[in-house]
Amino acid sequence: MKNTILKQINVVGAVLGYPFYIYPDGTCGKNFIFQNEQAAAVVKCKFPMGELKSKFATSSPEDEKNVLKYLSHIGKNIGFPFYILPDGTCSKSSFDKDNFDIKTASSSAMIVQHPFNVAQILVNPNLCGSLFNSSSDDDDDCVATVSVDGNLISYAASTPFKPTMYDLLHLEKIRKELLRSPSSSYILRNSDDERVMICFGLVRDLKNYFSHHLTSEKGPIYLIMRNDWGAFKAYFKSFSFFQEHERLLINYCSEYVVMLYMERHGLYARAQRLMVQQCSDNLIKAFQKKYFLDYGAKILLQKREENFFSLLHL
Q1: Residue 58, C-beta contacts closer than 8 angstroms, at least 6 positions apart
Q2: How far apart are CA 210 and CA 216, in angstroms?
């Protein structure tokens, strides 16, 4: 009996859009962190087929839906993280000669970082968040509004966290400070200001905020957790990432977001190497049109191309 593991993952992707994330408790969402729990797997695109090709993935009618059990089992046998390529094969590398399929792509479609605590996928509608739309306007927020003491307070609904009353009041306080004195150092005096603003502020708030204030090392992490196109665009206009944040960007965000980043900023050497290992040919070519590849990334790209052409002549 063929397993339907990838077919079930595709069903979730059709609902949430790509990329989406699967957390250790089996729930799925659009942000790589939810309630302080990091995603155990990232699904970057739809699989062309529904069968997972691994000797460790055997299925029966009784446990056909236990998708996550099989992924955890595979990881325990071959090690974490592991990659699932578009043809359904599993590999310790996102680009593997033995598992490479010329007809699809060289980059992985899914990364499984850690084992799961449960056997089945659970789709929670509250975790869907906002879907990426590369043509959306900067101020096209997914907005929620609540009444606090007779005043309406708006915040971005595209966040994995639900704001507390403290967060909402604090957000309104920051807005007033920014209006009163945009370049004021007030915001830099309280690290919680940054969390509240980046996680819950509207895109127009963020454009104002990023125009005048630097972020701490946590700022880009909050931004990636929020996973919102308009927020990314506002940040990239003013700032680039540190190398550890660039690696998170490539691992957990769609290639549309990476491309948006590359419109204004290059990549550190380690991020370039990760890009060559994991990303599509189109993204790599787009990078090379604007920037020079690091020596190590060039070597990896050369090996990737050699593997490709060697398979063409099989």
Answers
A1: 3
A2: 12
Q: Judge if the upstream peptide bond of residue 19 is cis by omega within 30 degrees of 0.
A: yes
Structure tokens at 185: 């150092």
| C-beta of residue 162 within 8 angstroms of C-beta of residue 151 | no
183 C-beta neighbours (distance < 10 Å), count: 10
User: What are the structure tokens assigned to 290, written together?
Assistant: 């604007």
CA-CA distance, 120 to 123, in Å (whole number)? 10
* 107, 121 contact by CB (below 8 A): no
pTM, to two decimals: 0.61
Q: What is the pLDDT of residue 182?
A: 62
Class of residue 164 by CB neighbours under 10 A (exposed 0-12, middle 13-18, buried 19+): exposed
The packing angle between helices 67-78 and 5-16, to 10°, is: 110
Low-confidence ranges of the chain (pLDDT < 50): 61, 96-106, 125-139, 185-186, 311-314
> What's the chain's length in residues?
314
Of 259, 156, 263, the residue nearest 203 (C-alpha): 156
Q: Is residue 105 within 8 Å of 282, Cβ to Cβ?
A: no
Residue 277: name the closest of 260, 295, 300 by CA: 300
Amino acid sitting at position 160: P
Q: Sheet harboring 41-43: ordered strands across?
A: 90-91, 82-84, 110-112, 41-43, 20-22, 27-29, 122-123
Q: What is the pLDDT of residues 94-149, one digit of tens each?
A: 654 444 433 333 467 899 999 999 988 876 544 433 333 333 344 456 788 888 77
